[in-house]
Amino acid sequence: QVQLVESGGGLVQPGGSLRLSCAVSGTIFKNYNMEWYRQAPGTQRELVARITSGGYTNYADSVKGRFTISRDNAKNTAYLQMNSLKPEDTAVYYCRGENIATMNRYWGQGTQVTVSS
């Protein structure tokens, strides 16, 4: 079955960087649009960044210029490079894959990112 596994979260000081990874298995990765969401306690899950199967990207206004989404089809992995991190970026980060043919969507289990001094 389709599985998405995030990694790379952790504790970082304000101004620091982290790179999240989302490894996809059980399917043909290149046929998926990939997205990163985040959810802080007491808030709704929000879309952070998206990369299409063709490599087009878009970002939430709150992370533009600081976060970069990318993908490596040879490694079946999507990434989220996060720079200049702020305390308000603290959340559980989830990746989601969307099959471009069936529109089926799959979630990873999430990885915690904490930005604190």
Question: Please, could you describe this protein's structure?
Answer:
This protein is mainly β. It contains no helices and eleven strands. It has strands at about 5, 10, 20-25, 30-40, 45-50, 55-60, 65-70, 75-80, 90-100, 105, 110-115. Strands 2, 4, 5, 6, 9, 10 and 11 form a seven-stranded mixed beta sheet that branches. It has a four-stranded antiparallel beta sheet with strand order 1-3-8-7, with no helix packed on it. The chain is globular. The N and C termini lie far apart (about 40 Å).
Determine the strand fraction and express it as a percent band: over 45%
The main β sheet shows up as: 7 strands, mixed
From the alpha-carbon coordinates, what is the Rg to the nearest angstrom? 13 Å
Helices, by number, come to: 0
- Average pLDDT rating: 97
Helix content: under 10%
The H-and-E topology, N to C, reads as: EEEEEEEEEEE
**Structural class by secondary-structure content:** mainly beta
Q: N-to-C terminal Cα separation, in Å?
A: 40 Å
Could you list the spans in which at least 5 consecutive residues all have pLDDT below 50?
none
